[in-house]
Amino acid sequence: MKKLVSLVLVVGAVFILGSCGKTLTTSDIDSIEIGDSVKTVEDILGKPTNILEKDAAKDSLIYLASTAEDNYEKDKKFKAFYEAITNARDNKKLQGLEYTYKNEDGEEDNKIFYTDRKEVIFLIQPYENY
């Protein structure tokens, strides 16, 4: 009986400790760059909070592209931004890895790393204002 109770306690402790995920910070998120492999992203940040498969990832980039397109002629930074979005959006294997983290103000924030399922091809805060 004592062995059974001990085993249950050990298994319970392992389960509880294993389910406690690391709280990601801005510096964790900022360590990821375009060209990093998906494995590198998951090694540093763990499993994503949410995965945007092809259509959802594409829809989010279409929205961003329309925002950038409105400013395309007004500001040169939008030209590069728009072109990067368009190239990422047209990738047939597009996938978005969304991570939730604590920003410098201690507030919860999100960032999406768009991948071709091998490496990061585009990254952006989903709700940044451009």
Task: Give the SSE map.
Blueprint: H1 2-19, H2 26-30, H3 38-45, E1 50-52, H4 54-70, H5 76-89, E2 95-102, E3 108-115, E4 120-124
Helix pairs in contact: 4-5
Structural commentary:
- It is a single chain.
- By secondary structure, this protein is an alpha+beta fold.
- The chain has one domain (23-124).
- The protein contains five helices and four strands, in the order H-H-H-E-H-H-E-E-E.
- It has helices at 2-19, 26-30, 38-45, 54-70, 76-89, and strands at residues 50-52, 95-102, 108-115, 120-124.
- Strands 1-2-3-4 form a four-stranded antiparallel sheet.
- Strand 3 and strand 4 form a beta hairpin.
- Helix 4 (54-70) packs antiparallel against helix 5 (76-89).
- The relative contact order is 0.18.
Brief overview:
This protein has 130 residues and is of the alpha+beta class.
Fill in the keyword field for this structure:
disordered N terminus, alpha+beta, four-stranded antiparallel β-sheet
